[in-house]
Sequence to fold (428 residues):
Amino acid sequence: MVSSLVIGRLYTFGVSLLIALIAYPSQIFLFIPAFDNVSTTFKVLIPLNLLVIMVYWNYYLAVQTDPGRVPIEWVDKIPESILIPCNEERRAEGITGPRFCKTCDIYKPPRTHHCRYCRRCVLKMDHHCPWINNCVGYFNYAHFVRFTLYVNIACLYILILLIWRIHKILDDLQHFRFDSEPNTAQVILYVVEFALSFCVFFCVGMLSVYHLYCVTQNQSTIEGWERSKVTRLIRRKRISPVKYPFDIGFYRNICFVMGDNPLLWLWPQQARGDGLSFPVRPNTDPEIPFYWPPRDPDELRPSIFSNRYHQQQQQIHGGEEVIDNNNNTEDYVDSDEYYDSGSLSDSDYSISDEEERLRQPVMRMKRQYRRVSNHKQQQQQQHSPQPISSSSSSNLLLSQSPPLMEQYPESNHHVPLVARNIIMKKDD
Ligand SMILES: [Zn+2]
Ligand SMILES: [Zn+2]
Fold:
């Protein structure tokens, strides 16, 4: 823990040093001596130093701003309807129950993911960035994007000045003017500064272009991966066509991240909203953000919380069900079909060791299911050409697979905190 803290500090110190190394030696030893008068020097170098200030300022904000943690008030904002297990029809479309983080013991707000480095759920998590020693999430994403943009602009500015200066030196030498001929130390500095600026411009530039694309799509890096997976599932007809719910249009997407006033998009400002609820495209099912992304129906599995959740409800309410699943409670009571799409999915960004341990039986079950399924399909093909449908495949998976709770009878997993709180509230 202490070592990771030290390594994190070393990263931020290294980045600050790199910025200083690119920005200042070139000005002091290469540019200032090259200008003929003070006025030109100021005109050229003041904008550059303003850019450097903006780089440091946005870097500081990206490092220091908490990306967003799930607040305790989130409990009050969860619509009870999303805690109801999805019916078979929706599960066949890859729409699952609410997303749950076992490590934090809380239902995840839409777009929230668990970060194993920060050891907590992060609102609208983009990625964990060692260079800022912080997660990039809802509240510091715009700072991060502005930081990368200012790094690019500042590096481009320095590269243009370096190229202009080298061009002038070569021109002078061609015309036998040796006044501006650089000494050996300056030549080395030219090469080092050019290499550093170009490398940073190239690497951070690619990052910037990707994040600008993400801003225009209103998606995080994780959601980009999820969207690719959803597109694949739709193309293979594993799930029904569904549109990414958070894309609210090119201009509004940018405003959502960078602010409403385009003149201030590059000016540091706090993120609006609470990071718990998000605007969605028109005609979107209001529950979709809580379940997003849809998954391959064959990869869904019974929740490890299901049995205990049900038992707890019965103990508290003497067998009377609290949550009415649209008169569909019988399915819920008799089966282990309370799904969660939280921490144990393939597409989840970070999976803790314990989750990984729990995943192994699921993968074994899937392999076993595929073997049985292939065998069955071959048999069917011999008698009839009709393929197995997705929902029947899902049922087959369940029928072939013992519930996880049976495999882990000693499991300490308990009723989710949020569900408990909702039950308590209902008692009051
Ligand atoms: Zn978590
Ligand atoms: Zn993190």
User: Anything to note?
Assistant: The first helix runs from residue 2 to 31. The longest strand covers residues 113-115. The chain has a mean pLDDT of 76. The radius of gyration is 28 Å.
